[in-house]
Amino acid sequence: MAEYLLLILFAAPLAAVVLSFAVRSSRLSEYVTVLAAITDFVISIPLLISALGGPITLAHNYIQVDPLGAWVIVCISIVYTLASIYAIGYMRLLNEDERLPLFYGLFSGFAFTMLAACIMNNVGVFWIAIELTTLISTFLVGFEREAESTEAAWKYIVVVSGGISLALLGTVLFYWGGSFVLGPSYAMTWAALHKAAPEVYPPLLLVSFLLVLVGYGTKAGLAPMHTWLPDAHSESPAPVSAMLSGALLNASMLGIARFLGVVRGASIDGFAHSAVVGFGIFSFVIASLFIVRQTGIKRLMAYSSVEHIGVQALGLGFGGVFGVAGALYHMLNHSLNKSLMFFGAGNAMRAYGTKDIPGIRRVLSVFPVSGTLWLLGAVGIAGAPPFALFLSEFTILRAGIGSRYRWAVIVFVIFLIVVFIGFLSHFRAMYFDEATEQEVPRLSGTVWRTLPMWLAFIPLLVLGLWWPHSLWDVFARICHDLMGGAQ
Amino acid sequence: MFLEHVNPLQASIFSSLAVVSLLLTFVMLGSHWLQNYVYAFAVQSWLIAALSASVGYFAGYPELYVIAVLTALFRGLVLPYLLMRIIGRLNAKRELHAVLQPSSSLVLGALLVMFAFVIANHMNRQSFLAAHVVVMALTIMLSMKFLGFLMLAVRDEAVSQILGLLVLENGIFLGSQILVPGMPLLIEIVILFDLLIVVACFGMLVRFLVVHAGTTSSRQLNRLVG
């Protein structure tokens, strides 16, 4: 049963890639991509349920679907679905109809590699999957083929390839450490590394862990390795920005979460958590300062992604049921909310013909409906109730209060206020400031561009008011897997 | 670990291959000419292939011969060929505005190697006869990392940046041949192919850079800040 689910999960985007490239019809590739994305979303939920019954292992232990991986698959396929619907409305505005099949082919390929990363049980193959996501998304970042987007694509591939090579070094060192315990040749699974970790010479284990943390942290956008992120997120087409922010960062966080699981119980466990907390709080502080003085609308969203990835890292670093559950809930909520924000930003950018916040004024008079959704999304992403991010941030705060990182909680709370004021003051200016020059924007939102905003907004509100008990069970289960049932 | 049983001759073969590879990184660091980088990289890859083969022979891992052949073929021939094509297309023969003079980057590189040695020394607790090979492998692995990042930092030309990334990977590959020769074959092969795709992607991107950004020097890629 689970095998078939997995087969469909990967066959759908693959079919979309093949059809987009083979038929080369832009309309067909649009609909095939949406169809594949919806299929993936529908499949991902029974997959999560069946993974809860016990990890599904396939292909000589190279593939394993555990609850954590299945959860990230759910988050990724949600963003894939929303972004592919939005892409129909957005990409048609670019007037590059003949290149659309290429776009959708890459788009589904990107989703495919991210989904593949989630089920890799072999640490080396996981690294390869993450590397492939970079290679495919580079061309999506540079898709608009302007000077800025090409520059962003170049910086993206150089910085991320450099960073991810550190993760490869860390992986090799992990393997070497394990070879003292498990013999010179063994299958490099997460479980094997975890089994060997307590016996490995601590300094070696520490260096290995820091290397993978910096490596996957680069890909996840943790400061100070986040430098590629604002460029890539702001210069790529809006649906791609949503995928980068809402899906790719999750896939990389998965690597960090799994390596935290690997060193659990080893002598460096405490230090590893402190390092993750340190990167998390640093990302949060850096991002909030940049949010305050930002002038580009999509760069604002990009720094907000750095901030929220920092929050997720804090949750994982604080640990405990609350920390892990908060981080995972935050992952879902951030995926929904950031997609909504990038969709709104894409609409505004296209309508006003500028990426600069000062050029965007009186949004509500142009977009009465989608503008309202965007504003509510901004309130949500700044961490205010009744939206879902408030709940997950609050849970992470609770985890922090009970841990030995109270100082981090204090810094976190102070900068949450900074983010709240900084982020919303940009929105106040865009919505309620007088326009300096009266310029009538050209287009209003079509259904394709408004529908995904509703689809992101409604669950965001619902999850903010009601944390389903079944989700709590999922998180408790994942926490049990990661933390060995402690706490 | 197989190094516990190597004799001094074998240990010195491994060491000398690894050390010459490290020296070739310094050749790249000390030269202005893009072609020299590529030649040094090609020779380095051949040395790593020889290292794989010799580890395979002495330690009894026949699958390492496959790795050796593939390394020589891909890293030693195909990648340099692709890089030469990129250089030919760019019409950029030398690095014009390096942030650091070659002499200063050599000194900095030497300091980084010492730093790498200090870290490597802390990471090792083996104390058998050939343990110095372990420390050396770790040192070279880490120092090629540092040198690769140094090249990325002080060089502007797109080709130098690609080569910097390739040096990062060569370092890992070199070290892993000595430290973990038993690493599953599949992974090493996939990583080799992955590298090929990386360079192909870079090649395409360089073309976009020329057409759309009008430059291949990262110094001029300064539109996106803040």
UniProtKB/TrEMBL annotation, chain A:
NADH:quinone oxidoreductase/Mrp antiporter transmembrane domain segment(s): 121-414
TM helices/strands, residue ranges: 6-23, 35-56, 68-88, 100-119, 125-144, 156-176, 200-217, 238-259, 271-292, 313-332, 373-395, 407-427, 447-467
Keyword Transmembrane helix on entry: yes
Family annotation (Pfam families): Proton_antipo_M (PF00361)
Topology of this chain in the membrane: Multi-pass membrane protein
Places the protein is found: Cell membrane; Membrane
PANTHER family cross-referenced by the UniProt entry: HYDROGENASE-4 COMPONENT F (PTHR42682:SF5)
Protein name stated in the entry: Proton-conducting transporter membrane subunit
Species, as recorded: Acidicapsa dinghuensis
The organism's taxonomic lineage, starting at the top: Bacteria, Pseudomonadati, Acidobacteriota, Terriglobia, Terriglobales
UniProtKB/TrEMBL annotation, chain B:
Localization, UniProt: Cell membrane
Major subcellular location class: membrane
Record protein name field: Hydrogenase
Highest taxon of the lineage: Bacteria
InterPro entries for the chain: HyfE-like (IPR038730)
Naturally occurring in which organism (per UniProt): Acidicapsa dinghuensis
Transmembrane segments: 12-30, 37-58, 64-84, 105-123, 129-150, 162-180, 186-210
Keywords: Cell membrane, Membrane, Transmembrane, Transmembrane helix
Topology of this chain in the membrane: Multi-pass membrane protein
